[in-house]
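Progress against Task 2.4 (sequence-to-structure conversion) is shown through the following example record, which the project officer requested during the mid-term review.
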Amino acid sequence: MQDRIRQLLVEVPPWSAYSLLAIHEQLASLSSVDELTQWLRGLRNAIPLMPPVLLAISGRGRYLPQLHRVIYHDWPADWLERYDDPGFRSADPILSAPAGQPVHWSAEFARLKRPTLSQRKFLASCRNNGMTHGVSFISDQRNHRVILSLSGQRAEEDAQLIRMIEMVWTHIVQCARRLLLPKNRLFELSPRERDVVELISLGESYRSTAAALGIDETTVTDHVNRMVERYGANNSRHLVKILFSCTD
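Structure tokens generated for the chain above:
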């Protein structure tokens, strides 16, 4: 990693190295979500012709449809409203793309040689909303992914900007984790409690949850009531929000 950073420092103008050191110090000093949002807004304003930015925490693997929080964005509101739908979001190949290297959207979309019906609908929506080009930076954190995305064709073509973000990406991730990443509340649950919560979070009723797990509906109710009391929730919906929240 250090060799990669040194290589990148050689490839960018000298002033960029000083800017990167300042960015590292700024991120380390942030103490709230509001400050992180302000910092991202300042970065967006400081870089000429900076493409639209989005920073988000997404679920990973089995949690992909359930957990998604946008920390900062200057993307179209109607696109984000559509993207908030778990079914729509799950069809996005960028969310499941490999971490570690910048992901170019157009290349990732082109790899879908035999897309599913939901993926075809997603790609059509991308074309209709001008979201076919962009670049994403992804970091895996256990059952979560931290994702920074820049939209637009210029984002894919600006090699210097991509290199600079690569150099500060680790520090952005560390800051996001420190301020936003949940304390793995799902792993505090018993396997049965986790099964119950996951099904309820997907919209299943107590009855259908009981049928799926092969237990009585009363047992499901008892599990939920104990968790509601343990986490100070108002009801089952509030419980799901607490357990899948991206804040402490």
